[in-house]
């Protein structure tokens, strides 16, 4: 191992240890967690995972989370695509201001909007629905999606558009049949970031749901405050929240770096 | 400035069974302007990077004025290299860009200043020295990359790796002329890699043609045109390239399909000793429409008027053959008789010239 | 140059509508609250700038703002250089590169409260590996009772969580540098440091500005992670702006002051981001010229 990797490996150990520790705890019984200090489970048990995967109150949370994250990702990319095209290809009245205004939404602290959001979605009857959370998350995902996609689209020469129009393609047909396949990687990277920011968000998701759309992250917070902490189940729930993210990373690992390099810089 | 010798130099990239550069020996004279010409992937950039020290060859030696520099790091070789895309340090001014190699070598500031001034004058950059390099045009950036090489004293050679790729066509010739002027002024050894024959032939005194990892000919533009040493040189250089016709030796003459062309006995003796399939090569410029003497009969396919010349395409012994005719020439029948200039008729076996 | 075409607004319209629905209406609500005293849903009194004055004089806000600024500055000062160093150390390609990238990116995809939970467990001195290790080294580490320890733990947690983002960005920037730059630098005799200073850093400037922008915004808005880890304590050592705001709005139900506070908070971030954004635009136009 070369010297320059030494620091990197050290950092990776630092990065992985806390995650390993949670995994370790999730495979232990509560007696072992609180009783003996052990670096790996001596009494290996899957009971904690079984608890979660058999109790609808637990696994329902995962389903809720996946539903609103999915809706959010699809909607964010869908509305961001034409907008990013407009920003990358044309100048129009107020384009710079509009872009900055979009970015300001990425900058607004969710805490500022908690109460108004609650009131807004309650008044239109969307409270405790997946749509509400998806819409609220679009506030910070759409600006980012437009930003990343615009970078990718600017890398595609404009001659391609012009050729297609000369060949008699209408805008929608050109956009769907020619342009979107060209920026496939960009869409993948954008979807990754939408997924990531929506999946990890807690504050809005918790405020806008109560029962029917309650996300896993909110269910976990309730367990944390319950008397007689069930460490094992908590750790198992935590481990399970990492799984979708880890899968997504694995699939897009070769594009993550590229996505940013082509970003709006 | 230095004489560069390559001794048994060859290179295989790790994990590759085949040579990217076939082992070969050659000498590049001090102060010469060389062009390294060949199609993409023929090994010319590999050769260039070995000379500059960016790549350590897997076998053989590189000598600068007799000193072995094969394993010497790039910065100690006094090589200047200009790349395909302009490499400049964006955050620096033009002056700082030019001073960079000197400051890295810990030269004192007054000395740096006088060197940079000197080079800036040669390159017509004096007025731009205070400008930020990022704002310059592509050709100015290429000049600065060149300047960073020249600014060092005792530059052994300046290497160019297709430096005009990103330059607008209408300024290409300007830049090329500037390079020539600098070459004459500083008497530097220049090695210029390109895949464009016009660029190579107009720039260099000596053109080195590479093909499949091998130097197939090193010579003046005239040599390459008149006596190509390899069929590749024949068809790569010239427009259109050399006509290459498979043929057989029959006693004192050459058989092409059903026709024969007499040759002198010395040549026939030489060809007889080869014992390999022969190819006759002749450039379109050295074929004439003939009435008498040894001629060959060909079927006219088409005649194109290219302005100053006419290009005749004909069929001879089942092969297509191109002939360059004067602008007033005319062809009235659908068959012609062709005469080959004997001194410019070449014979190749296995690609290499044998006579 | 891009052609001028105001019909492009049609393409932007869906985004504008979507975001406006979730942004403009709530913002108006906040503005509305900030100038009224809400005694009950039916009884509201217009109070003008009264709440703003109260909020701006609130010593607790000053404390939270100061803590916030120190916190954001600290994590940025650690994460950006550390992220760059990691990116420089990452192998350029091959399975080692993939593996390191995946491991590195892991913390980014962990839900915020799970991040809090992980560190809550990890730092505990009875059942957490980190806490136990620190005790074994002879320290009196306890994030639940010692303000400094709590604060340090939040910083380490944030570094753990977000340094990978900077590393990924910087890595992407590095990969975009053509090989010829490094070759030219070798010919010019540049030292390792000069290569970094004059090639790598300038070429990474764009992505690093994005990273700085994202990290500044997100660290300034941090809420969930310290909430789960320390609940803002001990005392208010780790009570940052968002947390203070939420306490006020939800806990004490002071809608008017909370709304005024929200606006002030929002404006601070907006101002800072405007500065960053302008820098970003400038660097972009400088690159286009070059």
From TrEMBL, chain A:
Cite the InterPro entries for this sequence: BP-dep_ABC_trans_perm, MetI-like, MetI-like_sf
Segments spanning the bilayer are 5-23, 66-87, 99-118, 130-153, 174-200, 231-252
**Compartmental location:** Cell membrane
Tell me the membrane topology, using the record's own terms: Multi-pass membrane protein
Q: Which residues form the signal peptide?
A: none
Q: Which Pfam families match?
A: BPD_transp_1
Q: What is this protein called?
A: Carbohydrate ABC transporter permease
Protein's organism? Parachitinimonas caeni
From TrEMBL, chain B:
> Domain ABC transporter, which positions?
4-237
Q: Which residues form a coiled coil?
A: none
Among the GO molecular function terms of this UniProt record, one is:
ATP binding
SUPFAM superfamilies hit by this protein:
MOP-like (SSF50331), P-loop containing nucleoside triphosphate hydrolases (SSF52540)
Give the domain of life: Bacteria
Work out whether the entry's keyword set contains DNA-binding: no
Q: Which UniProt keywords apply?
A: ATP-binding, Cell membrane, Membrane, Nucleotide-binding, Transport
Under the heading InterPro entries, the entry gives: AAA+_ATPase, ABC_transporter-like_ATP-bd, ABC_transpr_FbpC, ABC_transpr_MalK/UgpC-like, Mo/tungstate-bd_C_term_dom, NA-bd_OB-fold, OB_MalK-like, P-loop_NTPase
Q: PROSITE patterns per the record?
A: ABC_TRANSPORTER_2 (PS50893)
Note the SMART domains from the entry. Answer: AAA
Specify the protein name: ABC transporter ATP-binding protein
Q: Which organism is it from?
A: Parachitinimonas caeni
